[in-house]
Amino acid sequence: MPEGLLTKTQLGERGLKPASEPVAQVLYHGNSYAPLYAVDDAVPKRSCSPAKRAVLDRARALQHVCRRCGHRDDEPLGRGRWCSPCSYAAALFVEHDQAQRDARQLVANESALLLVVDIDPEALPDTQAVAVVRIHDHHVLYASPAGEYGTTERAAVLHRLDNLTAGQPLVREPDHMGPTHRYPSRLLCPPGERLVRTADEPQWARRNESVAAIWARWFGWTDHPSSTIPGVPRDGTTVPWSRSLDVASDGQSMTALLHRIAAGTEPVWDRALWTIDGHGAPDLSWDRTRRSKAVSA
Fold this sequence. Notes:
Helices cover 34% and strands 13% of the residues. By secondary structure, it is an alpha+beta fold. A hairpin with a 3-residue loop joins strand 3 and strand 4. The protein is elongated and about 90 Å long.
């Protein structure tokens, strides 16, 4: 080590700290560098009072204690300060909380729309239909038979959807509504053929968020206690929607579901992690602050 130069750690061992920028650096372990500071430029480290030392010791001790359930862990718990079970519950509650925020934005936005499309390759043409419902007030803006692929009736439906949904926030119905998948892009696909995604798809045919995705995050069902990915229960018995030939009515029931999520009156899974462990809803104030700082940055 050059005479008169020390690393920050070495200065600390002498009760000193750097008072200026490093003047050199030393190579160690072949590919790592440590800055060196002039001893003559260093200043004494401020001593820590007993009261401040007690505060720091308590803060270090709390790093091992779950902020939610009080469990003491051998290792520091990190920024969230949750033990493993509580971290799973907290992660799911973040999804649950965000689902309500998303639903509230949709309900408050007078331009947000819900698109319902019933296109089944095996169904009769007169049973296939399309509806557009305004989420804010459940008003049906458009309801029409879908028409057969390649006909002027289908072309008129596509044109109407282009005009109604252009530039508007759009949500689609649940993906799976029984024996078939009700994807809006089916309107562009010949019966029985595989869906092919293209860059010039209209807005309403893209992968817009679905009512099912919002509800699943609100409901909090998972297939494993340590999973943090909410989903729609596989048995389908608990989903709050149904399929009928009246797509406009289906759409209104789904907008009503979004309103219940926004109001907080829609039930959650009776085994949702944050409800069954006895410790209540996690405090997300630190997470919201972190996310807001990330957005502003």
